[in-house]
Structure formats: structure tokens, C-alpha cells
Amino acid sequence: MMISRRNFMAVAGAAAAAAALTACGGSSSSASTASSAASSSAASAAGSEAAGKIVKVALTCDTGTIDDESFNQACWSAVSAYMGDDCQYYIPEADASDEDRETMIRQAVNDGAEVIVCVGYLYGASLAWAAEQYPDVKFIAIDVTQGDIGTDSIPANCYCITFKEEQAGYLAGYAITKDGKTKLGFLGGMAVPAVIRYGYGFVQGADAAAQELGQNIEINYFYGGQFYGDANITSRMEGWYSNGTQVVFACGGGIYTSAVEAALKNNGYVIGVDVDQNYIGVNGVADGSYAYNPFITSAMKGLSAAVETALSDIEAGEWGEISGSNGNFGLEDGDYIGLPTDEDSWNFDTFTVEDYESIKEKIASGEIAVDNSSDDATKPTVSEFTTVNYIQ
């Protein structure tokens, strides 16, 4: 059964996500030590299965930081808010290999986790190994598909959660162009499927709005190859803004920091990703580090709510209804992706919430079909109104 039966909202509050970081402990893959043996974990799991209560949940990340104010943090906030002190995160000190991911899973099992949330499509091969190695452990895999796992079917003790990021990207591109911006930028992290879908959706939405307006627009498009900002990426963004780019969709964990730093030096703006990142700008203004709030909007997907719902399903005895399946959620299923519409986060000049609801309904009904390609070589087709500069 699809997780959509629960009709949850797209994203948990950003303030709650930040507060949840302190709820329970974490470690790097190289520093964590096992607190219990695997046999003890199995005993705990058996007892909790009978009671319906999850004893311990682990979150294993692929790269970046747990406080990236985006992808990792949204997943961790869900786990820590749901479990309180009965959870642990594991994150590598550098870009992880399959062996590193397997090591983190092994550590999590040895530390007593009976449910492990694996974050990122690169966990595919490791999940194929782990599902067979630990048949009594339940795995929730975020942004992972059967193709990533590489098995004939999704393992029976694994539930995959994916989203139609192309729809969220489309909404952001359409809205920002309708709001009058004509020189746009897309800064992706690594060229992974979810990031590609965000970016290509952004291009499609911006082009659709440009056609409706009869307005020429230009989009710079670049992958930074990492999920964090640095001096080199900031310098590139400064070049974009100084040459007329008005707003950059910064899509890839902590890489947004480079876009924000460059924007603030050039009176530019940014679009956040995964969660409503408006609070970052609000806090920056409040503490004096930002002269103004550079966040116009954010392209969101329901990471926190999806993880919380899956954990709730397990405790409700409904694991059998979702295990071995892939929940792939978009607007046709409910409010699983979208832009924030509360007054504090709605920073458009002329684009209205009514405009937004109208275009969202057209996507949900199928009147507008958004190409969902996650192959970077299959670039979206655009009209004569749109110029896209793909930068290597």
C-alpha cells in the first residue's frame, strides 16, 4: 500500500529540524564504537517486534554533514523527533565508498539498531549486501530505487522512498520567472538522479513561464561536484551574479552557502532546496550576518514526513504493507512536494499563492506533464525564449 494513505504535509518545520539535532547522538564512521553485540541487537529486535515498539533507529548518511540545513538534516530531524534518545547517526569523514557504507550499517546493527534509515542513492549496492546479511533488520532507503540496489526486486526487508523532484523544480522555475526574473542560475551539488531531476524540472518550469510571458530568459547551469560550499564555488557564483544573474537555485546540501555568500555581495537572491530554507535568511538578518534575506522560496520534498510515516507504519504493524516496495511521491499523490506558502516564506514580488495553487493543480491533474529524466545527458527541450548555458 502506498504511504500516501496518510496524507502528510510535505516538510516538517525547519525550526523543529534544527532543534532535533541535539536530541540524540551521532558519530563519524571511523570514530563510533559498538555498545552492544549483534546477538544482543537481535534479541532486542525480537522483543520489540512483539511489543510493536521500535527500540533503536540509526541514520546512515553518505556525505556532507548532519546539520546541512537540507537533505541530511531533514531526515535526521524525523528520526530524532520520533525516537528521542533511542537513535544514532553515522556519517563518513570524507566521501564514502561502498565499503564505508557497509561499515556504517554494520556499526549501526552492532550498536543495537533494528531499523536503519539509509540516505542517498549510493546506498544501493550496500543495501543489497545488508538486506541479505541482516534479514531481521528493517531498512528505510531514501532516494534509492530497485535499479540502484541492483537486485531482481526490492529486498523484503527494505522500503524505498523517492520523490518527483522534477515537479518541485518546475514549480520553482515557473514561479521565479513569472515573478519577473529573467537571468537565472542552477547550482547543483553532485550530478545524482535527485539533483538532476530538480535541475531539469527547474529549466522546464522557467521555460514554460517564459513562453507564457513571451519573455526571453537565460539560465546558467552547473554542478559543483560536492554537497558543500567552498571558495572556488563561491567565486564562480560571484561571477554569475556580477554578470547579471538575479537568482540561483542552490540544490545540493550545504552547497547553498556559496550561493548565499555570493548573492549577498551582489544584491542577488537564492532558491533553497529540500526544506523551507527561509529561516536561514531570517536568522542571518537577526544576528547581523546578512544585510537582507536572500531566500525567495524553496523547492521542497517531504523527507521528514516520509521517514516519520514509515517509522509509524512499523510500530503500527503495517511494515508488511510497504516492505519490498518503492513509494515514489509527487503532486498526484498529495502535498508531497512544493513551495512554502506561509506568509513569512512567501517572498515573491508579483507571483501569488493563487497563481501557485493553479499551476500545482495542473501538474497534479496531469494537464502539465513534467519530464522526469535523471540522465544528465538527456537535457530538457526548451523554446526559443530560453537559453541554457550548461557549464562543465
Q: Hey, roughly how much beta strand do the residues contain?
A: 15-25%
Give the strand tally. 14
Strand order of the largest sheet: 1-3-2-4-5-6-12
Q: Give the end-to-end Cα distance, rounded to a whole number of Å.
A: 42 Å
What is the ordering of alpha helices and beta strands?
A: HEHEHEHEHEHEHEHEHEHEHEHHEEHE
| Uncertain parts | 1-23, 29-51
Sketch the major β-sheet: 7 strands, parallel
Overall 3D form: globular
Class by alpha and beta content: alpha/beta
Helices and strands in order, then pairings?
Elements: H1 14-20, E1 26-28, H2 38-51, E2 57-60, H3 71-83, E3 87-91, H4 98-110, E4 115-119, H5 124-133, E5 138-142, H6 146-149, E6 158-163, H7 165-178, E7 183-188, H8 193-213, E8 217-223, H9 231-242, E9 247-251, H10 256-265, E10 269-274, H11 278-286, E11 295-301, H12 303-315, H13 319-322, E12 326-329, E13 337-338, H14 353-365, E14 386-391
Parallel strand pairs: 1-3, 2-3, 2-4, 4-5, 5-6, 6-12, 7-8, 7-9, 8-14, 9-10, 10-11
Antiparallel strand pairs: 11-13
Helix pairs in contact: 1-3, 3-12, 4-5, 7-8, 9-10
Describe this structure in words.
The chain is α/β, with parallel strands linked by helices. A seven-stranded parallel sheet has the order 1-3-2-4-5-6-12, sandwiched between helices. It has 14 helices and 14 strands. Mean pLDDT is 88; it is low at 1-23 and 29-51.
